[in-house]
Amino acid sequence: MNGAESLVKTLLAGGVDTCFANPGTSEMHFVASLDRHPDMRCVPCLFEGGATGAADGWYRMRGDIAATLLHLGPGLANGLANLHNARKAGSGVLNVVGDHTEWHLAHESPLRGDLEGVSRAVSHWTRVSPDAPSVAPDGAEAIRAARSGNGRIATLVLRAHAAWEDAPGPAPVAPPPAPRRPDPAVVTAAARALRRPGAALMIDGPALHGDLAETAGRVAAKTGCRLIAPFLVSRIARGAGAVRIERERYAVDENVALLADVEHMVLCGAGRPVTFFSYPGKPSLPEPPGATMLDLCAPDMDIGWTLRALADETGATGAEPARMPLDTPAPPAGPMSLEKVGAALAALLPENAIVVDESITASRPLNVPTDTARRADWMYCTGGAIGLGLPCATGAALARPDRKTVALTGDGSAMYTLQSLWTMARENLGVLTIVFANRGYQILRGELANVDVPDYGPNAARMFDV
Amino acid sequence: MNGAESLVKTLLAGGVDTCFANPGTSEMHFVASLDRHPDMRCVPCLFEGGATGAADGWYRMRGDIAATLLHLGPGLANGLANLHNARKAGSGVLNVVGDHTEWHLAHESPLRGDLEGVSRAVSHWTRVSPDAPSVAPDGAEAIRAARSGNGRIATLVLRAHAAWEDAPGPAPVAPPPAPRRPDPAVVTAAARALRRPGAALMIDGPALHGDLAETAGRVAAKTGCRLIAPFLVSRIARGAGAVRIERERYAVDENVALLADVEHMVLCGAGRPVTFFSYPGKPSLPEPPGATMLDLCAPDMDIGWTLRALADETGATGAEPARMPLDTPAPPAGPMSLEKVGAALAALLPENAIVVDESITASRPLNVPTDTARRADWMYCTGGAIGLGLPCATGAALARPDRKTVALTGDGSAMYTLQSLWTMARENLGVLTIVFANRGYQILRGELANVDVPDYGPNAARMFDV
To answer: Does A269 touch chain B if contact means CB atoms closer than 8 Å?
Structure first.
């Protein structure tokens, strides 16, 4: 077999059976080997950002990695913005990027570029596989790297000769290293802090849905602390029956107001709160200046173990979390407005749906009424790089074909990765896409005021009135 | 004035009066300052690749730089593929990329990323302006860097506080360093080589149009050498009256055949010939193994001086270049075919048009008949990263509103940067766009055979039958 086939076999043996692909010439041996491995589902994407965003959506719903197949430096570059979003989501993604042969790279051919530089700008782990016998072991290491630390971006560069020359066979894939756990003394300190007045437990990542959200909710119920999530999260269970979790706000003043009473903050799977942008005269850190901050468990540590230890330490194991009630509005009538779209969504969203929300300036009127809609998993544009919505919905729908997926997207962001509509159709996915076409660069109008530029004239207005 | 305004003033004083912009919050002070500077033409682009590709097209037609305005690391990443094409075209581009304030970067906010790493992967020159007083002098340096070496990629990172804090004023822009010239002894050696049987003068960059193409043509006429250009070039004058310049081929075998008789090759403004991809058992270098290679003038050296010195040395100053004749076909009738579209283009293309050719697999039937169509400037996808066509045509049409621009694009590549159609409409540009919708991933079908995979089954076919 050749190097490419040894990689496909390694992926399959390592539990990676889905590949979002935008291949070119240098990946043809990988593509050719697919015919001998029908158990590898290769999903064509007509733009690289569609592939990387779909791998992100896949991870968010499966909690395990898919691969992407991309074409040289420019191909990886086209997928970079959604890898940025995936990285901020804490999603594991394994990129396989084809490159020229080693001897071809000695010359200045059109597609030659700084592929490793492009990769390092976003990947936690980058390796160039030098020859065919290295491809399988490097692939196994890449899988392990992508699964490490609760999900990382790993990029394997597959040079053309390493793909087409003879290789001995697949390599075994080792499990990722066990994530670090906090010192028990820190758990004890966190439990003590959470019992104080003005305490908040800030959670993120896997703590926002499923069993871990339940555990976090028990801790909050028992200690009386608030349970808060960042504004943009990878995946959060929302709606009737979901554990009540507050979410930070986009606007700095609103976020500062939200956290005004916080005296003690414990971070569990979450980074330190920070505003989206910085503005003249406004803080980057939204919590009150005197608040204590306890970093219990970093996002790449063992969040499950930590939450369970915290529940034990606080005696919360039998507590009942506060939950959201069911309160759906009547389906609205009359002329369309954002509020009515939000009410319609709240009225009609089916139980257990997956919602990818990249509606940006339209987001609030959609999120408020759906707080008490039927329970669903909601996913957000974690890195703020637009163009995530449609690809992420594609990957999520492939990962969970048993559930209905809804993509909410702005018109500007939809255009960034519009090719994902083709993949949805091609793969016959159950995705409902709603495009919020405000026909303007709406967010900038607000942001201009935020940076102390209240008025603008015709030359600046040409940037917003699109 | 603030740092942003000091930059706008520096750009204008330095002769940069056009900015292709996809701004976000961190660039709002730059946008606000536009109202006080109506002589800065800021062209909104709804995708960053549209902005960088337009700046490339602008440079190809003007021979001088435009600016782009982009938003943090993900914004620059979205523009990276077309910056790759610009770099391969030898185009100068000045990117201004907004970033968070220094103190905001201390925290893990959503859009924070390795902006400098993204930039360094494609830029010749990258600088982070640390504070407002540095912005104008750094901007002046950036302009100089972008104009150096016949055109380079320069990226200035403008942190938000450096944009909004007080700055003393604009900075003077120094001319770029004079490009290096070859040693006269090398010119003499080149002249000697070109008089030999089997000699070829390989030219690229500014040598492919205007006065320098005339000079190169005289040298060829006088010495009897062949005049050859790479397959993908930044801009070449083609059609009736243009100097006869052969072009390399995409297919390796055809390219090897084209160069089979070359015994002595002189490179002037051109890199060493290299095939687009490498394939098993085929050479990366297309010239015959025994051919001598003389590197007369690298692409970043003084190509004009060198060609004129070569004309003097060969006594070619008064020679008459071989030129292409006018031979336009009758406008075709009957059912559509690629050949008929090529004939229609050859019949109808107006004198002095600008043609951006990203038609990829459709390219050959369009290029053969237009060899003898009316004279036009043709531009190609120099870096092989698709999505150049529409943005490049946008920038070219803005640079030369007096000429008709035609964009030839594949359906797959058009989707990469489709938002450029909006900019063309918004700016009321005279661009005719022809999309070659073959509804397949056509090039890969051929490439699979090229890499010795003659047959493929249903799982691989899913990648091509799109």
So the answer is: no
Question: In order of start, what are the domains of chain B with their CATH numbers?
Answer: 3-164 (3.40.50.970), 184-314 (3.40.50.1220), 338-444 (3.40.50.970)
Buried b (16+ CB within 10 A) or exposed e, A410-434: bbbbbbbbbbbbbbbebbebebebb
- Single out the residue of B400, B311, B408 nearest to residue B362, CA to CA: B408
Compute the 3-state secondary structure of chain B and give helix, strand, coil in percent, each to the nearest 5. Answer: 40, 20, 40
3-state secondary structure of B295: strand
A320 token code pair: 């009942």
Structural contact between residues B84 and B43, judged by C-beta atoms closer than 8 angstroms: no
Whose tokens are 């159609």? That residue is: B421
* B459, B465, B466, best to mutate vs chain A, most A CBs in 10 Å: B459
Residues of chain A found within 8 Å of residue B423, distances taken between Cβ atoms: none
Strand positions, DSSP E, B132-279: 153-159, 199-203, 226-229, 236-238, 246-247, 264-268
Q: What angle do CA A304, A217, A329 make, to 5 degrees?
A: 125
Radius of gyration of chain A (CA): 23
Which amino acid, A338?
A: L
A101 and B278 within 8 Å at the Cβ level: the answer is yes
Closest CA to B410 of B422, B418, B402: B418
Is the predicted pLDDT of residue A140 greater than 80, yes or no? yes
- Take residue A292 and report the two structure tokens written for it: 């204590």
Q: CA-CA distance, B466 to B458, in Å (whole number)?
A: 13
Dump strand ranges (E) for A205-330.
226-229, 236-238, 246-247, 264-268, 292-297
Alpha-carbon torsion angle B433, B438, B443, B449, nearest 10: -160
ipTM of the predicted structure?
Answer: 0.96
Q: Does B104 touch chain A (CB under 8 A)?
A: yes
Tokens of A317: 């194991």
Q: Round to whole Å and give the CA distance between A363 and A375.
A: 18
Tell me the two tokens of residue A382: 């974690």
Token pair for residue B317? 């100053």
B147-186 pLDDT, tens digit per residue, is 999 999 999 999 999 999 999 999 999 999 999 999 999 9
Instruction: Give chain B's end-to-end CA distance (angstroms, integer).
Output: 54
DSSP assignment of B14-51 equals TT--EEEE---GGGHHHHHHHTT-TTSEEEE-SSHHHH
How high is the pLDDT of residue B141? 98
